[in-house]
Amino acid sequence: MSDIEFDRDGPPYGAYLLWFMRAVAVLWMAKGIIHWCLILGIGHADPDRFLGMPVLTQTAVIFFAVFDLVAAVGLWMATTWGGVIWLIASGGYFIISLFRPEIFGRQYAMMTTIGVLIVLYVGLAYFASRERHHR
């Protein structure tokens, strides 16, 4: 198996990664705001709905309300820690949806989206890293 050759005319994976991270940051900012709306009873959420949830669900909602916004800021800034926090938050949401469906329900569309985004992120980060080392 031959090594992938990178030349100056090849695709700019670093730029692709930057724009991917910023697009995901916008999505994760919206996801974090949705969790905060649930906590604060803003919008269509009943103000007492959050307090009526099981403690485990309340804990998960608060965790993602904080982690999603921190991950969004880190992704927008295109920092390494932002990617790590996002991987923890998105992986955690995926695992909770898969193994503890009583918390958020089995959200197959969200689980698929998160899985695809994680694979894209890891792939782009890998190619951007190789591009940086082959200059």
Automatic annotation (TrEMBL):
Pfam families: DUF6163. Signal peptide: none annotated. The keyword Membrane applies. Keywords: Membrane, Transmembrane, Transmembrane helix. The chain crosses the membrane at residues 16-38, 50-67, 73-96, 108-128. This is DoxX family protein.
